[in-house]
Amino acid sequence: MSSSAAAAADDRKRKRMISNRESARRSRMRRQKLIGDLIAEKAALEGSIGEANQKLSGAWGRYSALEAENERLRAEKERLAEYAASLNEVLATYREIEVGGADGVPDFSADQAGFQNPWSDFGVRSSSAQLVTDCF
Question: Is the pTM of this model over 0.70?
Fold first, then answer.
């Protein structure tokens, strides 16, 4: 082998070595950029998770408040239903007195006793049974 052939082989070997080093450097730079991008994405996702957790916490608080309000309204509905039933009993008793029962209780209607209908002074419908049922 001649010295010029050996020099050419050494030159190719040196160029290949330089090319490999440059390729390895570019590969390391791509890897570093990818790692940086992944770290930034992780931080953004953690921020999104924090915001979502805050929203969820707020929604859960509102849900709990609405659930308590719903329970209160159910209890009030039950109380008002019992009150309406009681009023209906009073109304039934009033009607028995108004019409006069078999027991000889006198009829105290407005026409016979000379009194005005107390409901008419307030612009309320005269059907008091309708009043109780309209509440619900």
Answer: no
